[in-house]
Amino acid sequence: MKHLRSIDELGLDGLTGLLQLTDHMAEINQRPVPKVPALRGRTVASLFFEDSTRTRLSFETAAKRLSADTMTFNVSTSSVNKGESLRDTVATITDMGVDAFVVRHKSVGIPWQISQWTTASIINAGDGAHQHPTQALVDCYTIREATHAQSFAGMKIAIVGDIKHSRVARSNIQAFSLLGAKVTLVAPPTLLPPDVSHWPVTVAHKLDEVVSQTDVLYMLRLQSERMAQGHVPTLREYSEQYGLTHKRVLALKSDAIVMHPGPMNRGVEMQIDPSDVKNSLIHRQVANGVSVRMAVLFELLGSGSNLGGQA
Amino acid sequence: MSQSIVIKGATVVNRNSQQVADVKIENGLVVEVAKNLKGDLHLDASGCIVSSGFVDLHAHLREPGKEEAETIETGSRAGALGGYTALIAMPNTDPPQDSVAVIDFVREQGKRAGLVDVVPSGCITLGRQGESLAPMAELSLAGVTLFTDDGNGVQDAALMRRALEYARGLGVTLAQHCEVAELTKGAVMNECSCCTDLGLPGWPAIAEELMVFRDIELVRITGASMHFLHLSTKRSVELVRAAKRDGLPITAEVTPHHLSLTQELLASYDSVYKVNPPLRSAADIRALKDGLLDGTIDAIATDHAPHPRRDKEMSLDLAPPGMLGLETALGVVLAEGMCEIRDVVALMSWNPAKIARIDGTHGLDVVAGANANLCVFDPELTWSVDPDRLASKSTNTPYAGKTLRGRVRHTIFKGTATVIDGQAQK
Description:
The structure holds 2 protein chains of 2 kinds. In chain A, strand 5 (about 155-160), helix 6 and strand 6 (about 180-185) form a beta-alpha-beta unit.
């Protein structure tokens, strides 16, 4: 595997392979010294053109635990603001000797464009509303860890909220479906893409009709600018219709799981504290983020050498 | 003084005749069409078609303002190689073509290049801002016959109504880029299942169709003549078909790319496929072809839109829309194989010459006494498109590496060969 840009490119075998490799990384992370020399001498560059805290830190932590060198490209102080083209930026960093770029950009397709201009591997850490494959890997791993299920066959997963503008939704719909889950999208029509008839999903517009039947309730973040753009009349109305309330928590099945990719909008899609939900996996999602990204980096940059030894 | 040229052995395609003959040209005119003619320069054309030169209603030549992408000279050369003898230069230059000074400059640059007639269009509104009318009477006196804000549609219905009323008095035609801007904010590609997958904002068909409908009704009450630029959807074709049935003075064009390429190409993330209006569905292509065959669509126009490589290397949302067209139009149209040679000549020469009101010098039958603006093309020759070998200053062709059928062999402009055996003569 050369790049990780979309779940589609990864396929079912790639997906299950990475989930298995993540088990191994999770074991390393349990050690007193959670660090191995597997990627010593390798360099990973973070190229974040959009704000991110957890994803960037998660990748950098993962790289360091595998003993890779890291460099961070800070957009606000970079030549991009002096008019340097993306191609020149990528070429320049490539010339410094980089093995992988971790890329986040507000524009769809940037990871594919960049891979034409560099020999390094590309990891998509989010491109516009298109794909965020490592988040989907994290979510699949987290569900697997909680349910001990190797396959998601028969599992009912509801993704709630702004599907239209969500790269997390697009990657997760593909990943959950590949693993056999039945995915339901819950949103007002204004927050759904124009045509989802070819997606392997069912669509609902009322959360209350779905909440009691779902095994995994996946809440998406609603950005406040959606109100200004007229996608929803008010945040209060959205919150009433699509937010996770105490009443809805009570309607959940006893073993139902609640997830959120973060950062949460408390008082909007999350009217409750996640700790009030017995089976909230929101903290596990963050914790597993490092193990999953170690697996991805090792898969792309590792030379098949063993993961043992001490750094 | 003038050297005589004889085009040898081509099939001469005229409105009411088609025959294999030689065509002799002298002093800027066709002087004889017969067998076994002799002259100073013989151009072999066996197996080829000779017709009036092509007229492009829709060329962005980028000068003044964006000479990095194209100049009037390089665009003219690309046009000559594509068989064109006249190009209608779109007004979205910098400064825009809303003053006599800029109109005269564009025309003069065209004359200096001397490869095709460069016919400047004028803006409908000042600065193409859609707020107040450009000095259309002054521009009309300077020779402008076609007005458009292309790149933008005129959004304000009241202003468009005034423009049509004013145009009727001047005897000029308005050409509309149909796009209701509120519906296409940030749009990158057609609104379809593919844009759902890619998470890109969609450019819905209705944004075009609403303005087509509005303008048809404005033509109905004003009586002015109107040309629709680059129609791209099935419903637009239906609206224009019905309007023509009502006898309204409306004409329409379609581009080669909207006849041959579909929205799914955007999944390559290559902005060479980003164009405005966007590439649509296979069903839209079928409807556009039907529109060509039944006369709903009058012309094939290129919307030749050069952009420098660095601009097209930006991401899909940021890269400017547009693609090259002048050198590939004929090859694309013939490769699609949807109509007879005579129809191709009508769509690329006779009809657009009339729409642009230059049919006194272009789009004439190839007969003795006619202005010698001619195109000689081999309708069967297949060739592969190499962007680096195009004459355009830019390389943003969506047909790179594609095999096209039909290529221009010679072009005659005002009695002089601008292209011989596929080579530009200057």
